Amino acid sequence: MADPTGKVRVALLSDSDIPASFSVLSKSFGHDAPLIDNYFPNHDTPAGQAQGSARLAAWKHASPASTFLKAVTTQAGDQEQEQEHVIGIAVWTHMKEAPPAELAQTENVTEVWPDEADRKFMMRLWREYVKPRTKAIEESGGKGVYVLELLAVHPGYQRLGAGTALVQWGTKAADEKGVKAVVEGTPVARRLYEQCGLRTEIEEMQFEVGEEFAGRRKPKLLFMTRQPRA
Question: pTM of whole model > 0.90?
């Protein structure tokens, strides 16, 4: 990793940034996040990264309510020229309608998860995953909520403020819209979210996936929210 020479900056993610951003996502989570491992199969392989990048691009094009962001910094490159480098990614969505409980309504499940057991497991995870945000949307009085659907920062660029900048971009937008900000966060990211004003509503989200999947790793996630501020 080269030493960064400038401050972290948040900008809109372009289509050309997606492969680099997906690589950041993969490196950020490694294999420590069961939801990411299941939602983006083989994300650390060339085939998995190609598929994951294509799915991110499709999501970006199909969801006008979502804002795809990148965190960038500059670093010294060849011949001492400064080069901009993507070190983080976030997706914020103003969600006014509950997400589909059935993953097949938003994904080509047979293509992404060709193994039947993997597919069934991911579909059951998804049904449980969307329950807290669905409840928050239903309780919003039609305003909806601002959901941090994805946040990742390259492990080689931690503690530069990229995560904070990406989260605060969304909480500011939520304040401007007068809606609650929500996130299904990992315990590792809890402190970051708390520093950005989010508070835990559900200490550990429940994932009831059936006895047949009792031996599989299930996500460990908190559901956190932040009321809009004037």
Answer: yes
Half-sphere exposure of 43 (CA within 13 A, CB side): 27
Q: How far apart are CA 144 and CA 140, in angstroms?
A: 5
Residue-range definition of the domain harbouring residue 14: 9-226
- CATH number for the domain that contains residue 183: 3.40.630.30
Residue 198 inside a domain? The answer is yes
Please identify which residue in the block is written with the tokens 């979502």.
Answer: 66
Q: Which of 5-14, 186-195, 212-221 shows the lowest mean pLDDT across its residues? A: 5-14
Q: Is residue 44 part of a domain?
A: yes
Mean pLDDT of the chain: 94
Q: Which two tokens stand for residue 109?
A: 């499940």
* Residue 154 included in any domain: yes
Classify residue 1: in a domain, yes or no. Answer: no
Nearest by Cα to 229 from 168, 187, 152: 168
Indicate the number of domains in the chain: 1
Residue type, 142: G
String of DSSP letters for 146-184: EEEEEEEE-GGGTTSSHHHHHHHHHHHHHHHHT-EEEEE
Q: What is the 3-state secondary structure (H, E, C) of 85-112?
A: EEEEEEEEEEECCCCCCCHHHCCCHHHH
Under 8 Å between Cβ of 90 and 150? yes
Q: How far out from the chain centre does Cα 73 lie?
A: 20
